[in-house]
Design a protein that fits this description.
This protein has 568 residues and is mostly helical. Helix content is 71%, strand content 0%. The chain contains 24 helices and no strands. α16 runs parallel beside α20. It is globular.
Amino acid sequence: MSLRPLTADGSRSLDRLLPLLLLPVALISLGPVARLMLEGIGFGRGLTTAHLTAVLARPSTLEALSHSLITAGGGTLISIAIGASFAFLVALTDVRAKAALVFCLMVPMMIPPQITALAWMQVTGPSSVMLKLVGLAPPLGTPQPLHSPGGIILLLGIQHASIVFLTLRAGLRMIPADLVEAARMSGAGPVRVWAQVVLPLSLPALIAGGSMAFVTALGNFGIPAMLGIPARYATLPTLIYQRLVGMGPGVLPEVAVLSLVIGAVAILGVLAGRLVLSRGGHGLSGLSSAPLALSLCRWRPAVEIALWAFIAAILALPLLALLATSLIPAYGVPLSVDTATLKAWHQALFVQPVTRRAYVNSLFLATAAAAVLMAVCLPLAWLTSRRPTRATRILDALVDLPYALPGVVLSIACILAFMRLPFTGLSLYGTIWIILLAYLARFLVVMLRPIQSSLAQLDPSMEEAAASVGASLGRRLRTIVLPLAAPSAAAGAILVFLTAVNELTVSALLWASGTETLGVVIFNLEDSGETVMASALAMSIVCLIVALMAAVQAGARHLPKGVIPWQS
């Protein structure tokens, strides 16, 4: 149903509200990206391409680019294998405890990548506490096998398998059960139904999920930094980090070019995924009346055992190894009843000022980002859906950009944009506020999209009826729109908080003394050899993330269907 013309009061209010809302959103979310592009093409230096050409021609740039493509491509293949296997089995078959399986598969995606790398390093290598406990540790001096391209590829694949799973599961829900039933009535077995009906129909979603996993792996900083830097295997994100940390702001023009390179590759990946989705439709008539449930018959117990064994291997085993390391008095000491201690936990949580400060900073940044974005996105979503203009349509199309770009690219963009604020002489670089602005730009779309989906399902006639009896715009928004959109806004805030509280890729280049985040502190502790304390701090974060996810799960029945990723 279309809206009738607004009252004069409503039109005047909207005309005043529109620039007050759209301009700050555009400046914060798109301003840094525009500034990065200008720096990359030599703006201020005569718009010359000489610097751009010089940086691109360096052997280190080409090597880091090839390493990024190799690790992201290999990781994507592993993500597709894991995510697709789980999606097909969970969505199409009669395996039991599906909700628990999906929840456990989602946990690695919510855990920070640097913690994933740290946990897996405690599983392998000569200093592994767990391997020493069972007498399987290799001799001292044996290289850490994960400090290699293969280790990076393996962990990138595990970290981003959930992306493929979520995208493919959404595509599988669109397959009408009638098609499958018709094939089964024609005598086709489960394998033939999957190969000739389900797979062709789900291929666009599978490719789209793979492209998203590739883009995410391309910009991943935590895993290549933890595993690649010790092996002197640089990807573009770690090369940018090393250049900026090692040489300071003087290399900003160079790292701006490197950021444009990785940003261009990421955007090509996003566009490729959208192209596949736009051309991959099969003209399905609608949602299936009942979920697909192919019977595994006698194979069901074996399949369930295999799924849970895999979950144990990629989730329980690394976390147990991380926990074991956090309980020893010093790295290299075997774990036993006599050596077990909580000293590292006490030091990390109650003694060391940097870890306590990092907890405060991360919780403040995550809470502030969620609260600010909720306040901004509620009216912004209403404007884009109820008052579509050229400005709102352009902004709606571009707000995906800061989230699609790798975090290290957004970091460089924010440094360039906020190092010296125009007309003020002030600088936000080195303060906690530049990290908050970067979070607002990056997670805007995470909050905006659920609210837009919720508003799209609301009947505008309720607002029209209120306007017809003289209700002002503010009252309509407060009494009608806000209560109905609040559950989606709350779900978006939860997702923003969960993502921001453990973030590293953006804050790795923006932090300064006093503004450390949890991800930064874990990376620095491991880099300085404080592995036991890093493990204790990492385990405390894992407990926090799992507890928050469990709280969301407990309240899922009060939230709109589909806003919680691991809900069926």
